[in-house]
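hey all, quick one before standup. I had two proteins in the batch that finished overnight and I want to keep them in one place so we stop losing track of which output belongs to which input. First protein below, input sequence then structure tokens straight from the run.
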Amino acid sequence: MATGQEHTVKAFDTDIGQLRGLISQMGGLAEEAIASAMLSLQRNDLALAQRVRAADKQIDVIESEVERTCVRIIALRAPMANDLREVVAALKIAAVVERIGDYAKNIAKRVPQIESEHRIEPISILPAMAEMASRMVREALDAFAARDAEAAVRVQEADNALDDFYDSIFRTLVTHMVENPKTIGQVAHLLFVAKNLERIGDHATNVAEMVYFAATGTQMAERDRSTRTA
């Protein structure tokens, strides 16, 4: 026969499982939003861009559910130490993932502003950066689900490569603007897209830092920027 303590532990595990499921669902929607936003940009698909913007509400709804679940767990289960860190991390991570969804929506908002009549070549280099950023988000959330501190560190390390990619794209876009003055308006929007992708990587790193703290109780060491190119 199960004791009261065993019942409480099982109930808490069930609650945490639900919380992880909600976070995973948010992450999946955010990844989908990033991919769809970039596809709409590549194809100049205004309808798809609009769907990305509309779908952002789903992420907001799940974030609210995460908040309610965290409050309920804290009120009913009174978690301590490792358990409390995980609940608080989930609450913070949900807010960060919601922000990642906002960046994807911002990219989709740029699509109607970029003329389709004369396709500009720099668009072709952005999807690779988007894939790097999206992979960081996925791996950070996988680290949360597995309470994997080492995986969280790897996400932080990947941010250097994404920042280098952003620097390279920035230089390429600025050079294109100088050499093709008629494309300044379009390229300016692409600069904002690249910056949004860079910020998505930063937010994935923030998630990784929260995961590391939840798993270890210590802060992740500052990332080494010395390997970055100028």
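OK second protein, same deal, sequence then tokens:
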Amino acid sequence: MSDRVILIDKPPGMTSFGVVARVRRVLSHRAGKKVKVGHCGTLDPFATGLLILVTGKECRNAMRYTKLDKVYEATFRLGQTSTTGDPEGEIMPYVASDELQGAESLPLLKQPDAAAVKYVLAQFVGDIKQRPPAFSAIKINGQRAYKLARSGKKVDIPERAVTIYALELLDYAYPLLKVRAHVSSGTYIRSLAVDIGEALGTGAYCQELRRTQIADWQVSQAQKLADFGIES
């Protein structure tokens, strides 16, 4: 059983690589030899939910799993922005771009009603162009974008085509907007939060993120790290 797929419910505050390293250590100890383990589709440290791990020869098929559609539940905080698009960045009050010049004080933001939110969400369903976050694992000239961003270098990531199959409003009570998003591989929910915030005129960042499904696999099928004797 060394060549297989393992479904993990990733806890918050841990990188996907951290999950892999911990599971590899346990499996290698059980097998009495080093077991190859990889993950298929990164989850940000603040995010939780379904993470596919592959072991042994199944690692050869990692890209096949990475390219599958995904479903997320996310909470966006309106009225503020983050340098990383999530809670780990510098959080700032939102200022519309046309109000940046000469603004002596921050303008009072108009809180969009539910009808406005539903209208804006509908505009993001379908094939869209999206710019991935500067703080991401995308490679630019052989280097990870987040490493360049952390060193203070300018990161220019081109837009990419992604598909939002469905974007469902789950709850809204300003400033918190909770959605369920069924998306294609390569979609960044952090970027979706930022773009929706801009469209609403409030700014936004992704405060909470949970991946609930990858293709037909559900997070309810996943194991916890505690099942491997790993403390999270």
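Flagging for whoever picks this up: The chain is about 20% helix and 35% strand. The chain has two domains: 5-66+216-228, 70-214.
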